[in-house]
Design goal:
- By secondary structure, the protein is α/β, with parallel strands linked by helices.
- It has one domain: Protein of unknown function UPF0759 (TIM Barrel, Alpha-Beta Barrel).
- It is 37% helix and 15% strand.
- The protein has eleven helices and eight strands.
- An eight-stranded parallel β-sheet has the order 3-2-1-8-7-6-5-4.
- Helix 7 links the parallel strand 4 and strand 5.
Length: 292
């Protein structure tokens, strides 16, 4: 993942911004005694990207991946909207507790830019609902040149998106967050339509660490820099997630990326160990007791 990459990670201040009061207020409205639901995964299961992760002779990469992780950020659906048969095939290769987080196709987000996309949205939703209990949450990622001048287009898209289908939104253009009035209008739209605000932690775009939750769900896309700081950054995330959990956070969806993706499972293993220890969970460990 090259978005937000930098040549010298040591020059970046990786500290997390303070949690906005609006986030804490929203979480407190959703406090409950329900168990903490946590899903951690990578972006892909492709053997080429995750070189060294699969044992020699592995014939089905997704089936093996699902024995080591409880979720996948399904970037494959960004390039081609899946057929119903494809979704059924993926679903049948994974265990009952596994969840998919499919990315809205680029034909809707990047090429269509949210205009005249009803039929494409319907095809995507009709296929991916066949994941059934294994559907986590889809996410819409807009091109970084998508600006607030097209707010009304986003407003219409989200208000008309199929009711009951879980959706998160990631906006990348800096103008959405540089102007407080624009940002607050955007957050209000997400809250009104019950859409989850994606947080991106990447070296070159610290403005995407808005830390603003619009549902009691934290959807975090964490991008390492293939540097030692990748691990210490995760320590701070554990502290922040603990703060949010105490305030009322119900679910955490945390996806690990690296500029060189083959290191993603190692970083994810470190994070999952911290999660398990901090919250008394027993999530699968992708590395186990071996080094790869």
């Amino acid at each position: 993942m090259k978005f937000g990459s930098v040549t010298d990670p040591s020059s970046i201040d990786f500290s997390l911004p303070k949690t906005p009061s609006a986030t804490l207020e929203l979480l407190k409205e959703h406090q409950s005694d329900e168990p903490f639901e946590v899903y951690v995964g990578c972006a892909k299961w492709n053997k080429k990207e995750l070189k060294g992760f699969y044992p020699r002779g592995t014939k089905d990469e997704l089936a093996y991946y699902a024995t080591k992780f409880n979720s996948i950020e399904l970037n494959a659906t960004f390039y081609n909207s899946p057929s119903k048969d494809q979704v059924e095939t993926w679903k049948d290769k994974t265990g009952k507790d596994f969840k998919f987080f499919p990315k809205i196709p680029q034909s809707i987000s990047h090429y269509g830019r949210l205009l005249n996309t009803d039929e494409k949205v319907k095809a995507f939703v009709d296929a991916t609902v066949l994941f059934e209990d294994k559907l986590g949450m889809a996410f819409l990622q807009m091109h970084d040149n998508y600006k607030p001048k097209d707010f009304d287009r986003l407003d219409s898209f989200l208000k008309n998106f199929p009711a009951g289908y879980p959706l998160a939104v990631e906006l990348r253009n800096e103008s959405w967050f540089a102007d407080k009035e624009v940002a607050e209008r955007y957050y209000a739209l997400l809250e009104k339509t019950d859409k989850t605000n994606v947080i991106v932690d990447t070296a070159g775009r610290r403005d995407l660490l808005h830390m603003r939750l619009t549902t009691p769900i934290a959807f975090v896309r964490y991008v390492g820099a293939n540097a030692p700081s990748d691990y210490t950054r995760l320590d701070e995330w554990i502290a922040r997630i603990s703060e949010w959990r105490k305030a009322g956070l119900q679910k955490l969806y945390f996806f690990i990326h690296q500029n060189m993706e083959e290191e993603s499972p190692l970083l994810a293993d470190h994070f999952i160990k911290l999660i398990n220890k901090t919250f008394g969970l027993n999530l699968k460990l992708p590395n186990g007791d071996k080094l790869f």
